[in-house]
Every structure is written in structure tokens, then in C-alpha cells.
Amino acid sequence: MSQQMPFDPFALWKQFYDKAEEQWSQTVDEAMHKEEFSKLMGQSLNSYLQYQNMARQSAEKYLEQANMPSRQDVANVASMIVNVETKVDRLEQTIEEEVVDALKQSELSKEVKALKTDMAKLTKRLDQLFEILEAKTEAAVAKEAKSVEVDAPKSK
Amino acid sequence: MISPIKEWEDILGMVPEELKSQMNRAKRFNEVMFVEPEPQVYQTPKEVVWTKNKATLYRFAPHLPKTKRVPLLMFYALINKPYILDLAPGNSLIEYLVNRGFDVYLMDWGTPGPEDRYMKLDDYIMDYMPLAVKKVLRHSGSDEVSVLGYCMGGTMTAIFSSLHTHLPIKNIILMTAPIDFSELGLFTNWLDERYFNLDKMVDTLGNVPPEMIDLGNKMLKPLVNFYGPYVSLAERVESQSFVDSWKLMQKWVGDGIPFPGEAFRQWIRDFYQHNKLIKGELVIRGQRVELSNIRASLLNIGATRDHIAQPKQLEPLMDAISSEDKTLSLMPTGHVSIVFGRQAVKHTYPTIGDWLDERSN
User: Fold this and answer.
1) ipTM beyond 0.90?
2) pLDDT of B264 higher than 70
3) Is B347 a residue of the active site?
4) Which of helix, strand or coil describes residue B46?
């Protein structure tokens, strides 16, 4: 047998939220759209900033009198380290790029060298071919001349 | 001697069932709020590729095979932690993409210190982002890269892509990235130059504390944002999966980082107060930003229930760029639920995965 509770706090909370969301969201939204609200927000921000400024200045004065570094001093040191890091970054980048360029150049020179060797081999082979051709041509010419000499008395 | 716990349990056993259930609910609510540890996030294995000042470039799941030729580099907003993109296993855009064979990199901006108060958007867009792209290209051995920007990181990605046309950016994905800042309702009112003393704020505070940024965002819907999460938790505290998601979301929402002072001044003045980007008046380190320089394939994703980057803020980008291959996709979610939760897993992840898949080989 289920026993019904006369009061459920979670359900009540949810109910309250749903009603508030339904009824108040529109009203809150309209209020926030008004210029007065922006003005009020601006004033609150100014007061907060004024307080922050005073707190920061007094903290800095105290730290200065106590001969202790302020947050600004630490930030200045950190900023110098960041600057050094940036310079190292640039150096690293330059080196990387130059190394890549150098690698590319060495690859290119290797290719050119290989091409030169191939060309030289080709030229050598062509020379050999020409020599063979020339020798063959000379032999053919000599043979032709000889046959002409042999045939000449017959024709007379 | 009878244990007090045993005694208490005996008393509990005698109370009516309904009351017992309510007491258990209250006990569970208390446990979730004050006793249980924070959930683990950012769990996809990653390796550090490069660091610069506080920023770190990560590569995810180095052990998994990468089947896509073009790597993906993600950029996130300067004001939050980037682990919203890798919140928990089964609920992580990064995990989804690495499981599909993408080579995923992420630029984690880190937490700026007081020494970074003079950092401007110019520094991030002209120094950090192009170097990150070059590092990814070199590390992956690819000759092209895809970039993804979420929220303010999306706006920065759009600016970066239009200024660095010499970089081989093949694909651009922007998620809830505001481009047009005209008529933003409450933000326009609150940031009115007559009342909002921006210079005094930056000069006094240096870096703007995350609580102030969070307060501004929550004030857009105060009842829903301040009160709603706890009512929802009380209502569904007995569902473990709901509690897990709730804890993850609360952890991320409350884990903001300071906004570098000068970047904040620039973000509010040039974007929210003067809307310079879409007007073509924005100047970054002496160069005018022209969105028409963007020619890469572009996927622009918005969320229909987003109050921080409304769809009307993203849509004007589609006409401003020169890309021939461009898609606008609106998801039925909110600003955060576009990358986290059931809707994200069902809609956003496959949309990004499929679009990128076609353009990454």
C-alpha cells in the first residue's frame, strides 16, 4: 500500500521555479532591456572598479614599504621571460626554415649531380655509337671502292 | 554497542516509502553537490607538438591510424577551457573525429597571467595561429590543412583565414562563431559606451576575471542560468546518466579563464560596440580584414537556441566570403549543447565528420 505524503519539497520547488520562470522571465527581461538598467549596471561596475583600484593601490604601497615585490613586479619579470621565449621561438623558426631550405637545396644539388652523371654516360655512349657508325661507314666505303675497282676492267 | 548508522537505517526502514524516497533524493542531491569528486575530462590521449608562452598545440590519439590526408586544427575561445571539445568518452567531438581516422590537432591557449594583460587579438591571430598551422603542416607532413573554430575561436579563425591567404587552408569549419554584432539585444544595451566604462575596467583589472564574463553570459537568462540547473538536478538526481552530464557541464561552465585585458578591450570595442568585422573596418596589425578573401570550402554551423551567438550573427558570413563551396547548417541546440550531449552526438558530430570526410582526401 503506497503512503502519500502530504508535502513534497522537491515538487514544490519545481512548481515554484516553473511559475517564476513563466511569470518573471518576461518581466526581468523587459527590465533589463531598459536604459535605466544599463545605467545602473554601469554605476555598479564603476563603484566596484573604484574599490578594486583603492585596494590595489594600498596593497602596492604596503608591499613597497615592506620591500616586497608586488604582483606587478612579478608580472614584469614574467613578461621579460616571455619576451626571451619569443626571441628563442623566432630563432628556432628561422633555423627550421633554413634547415628545410638547405635540405631542399642539397636534394636539388644531388638531383643535378645525378642528372650530370646520366648525361655524361649518355654522351659517352653516343660517342661510342658514333665511333662504331663511323668505323662501319668507313669499312662500307672502302668495300664499295674496292668492288668498283674490281668491276671497272670488265665494263671496259 | 549498536552502530549509529545501523540505528539510523533502522529508523529509515520504519518511515513511509514516499518519505524514504524523498530522503534518498535529498541525500543524493547533497552527495552530487558537495561530496563527490569532480568528473574527469579531456581524456582522449594526446601529445604535445609545440608550446608558445602559455599556449600548447596538442595532437590527439597519436597511436591511432590516420586515414585522412588533410589534418584538422581546432581553435577555441580565449575565455574558456578547450576541453568542451573533448569532455568525456562518448561525448567528445575530438574522440569522434579521431575514431573516423582524422588527424586532429588542438590549440589550447592556456591560462593567461598578469604578464599577458597586453596581449591583443592581433598577437593571437598574427603570431600564434599561423605558427600553429605551420607546425601542423610540418608535423603531419601534409601540404594542406583544415581548421575548425568554436565560439570566439570561430570568429578568430575567420579573421585569420582572411588575413593569411598564403597558407594552404583547404577547409574551414566555424561553430557558433559570431560575425555580425549588430542588434544583440541585452549585450548591446549593457555594453553601451555611455554607461559601460571599458577603458577603466581594463586599466583597473588588467585581465578580466572569468567570473565577470560568466556573469554577463548568465544574465542573458538569469532565472534559467542561475536557478534552473539546480532544479533540474533535484528533479532528475536519481538518473545516473543525467547526473554525469550535469556534473560535466557544471565543471566546464565554472572553469573559465581570465580574458587578456587588451584583447578584451578590442573584442568589446571593435566587435560589440562598433561591429567592425562585418562592415570591413576591422584592422589587425595594420591590415584591413576582408572576409571576401576567404576562398576555402566552408561549413558554418549555428544553434537555433543559442543566446550567445545567435543564428542571425552567423548568417551574414555566407554572403561576405568568396568560397564557392559553402554550407550553413543550423542545429536544434544551444550554444554549449551543440558540442556536448545527445543532440551533439546525434546531429553535430556526424554533420562535421561527413562534411570533412568528403574534403579531406
Assistant:
1) no
2) yes
3) no
4) strand
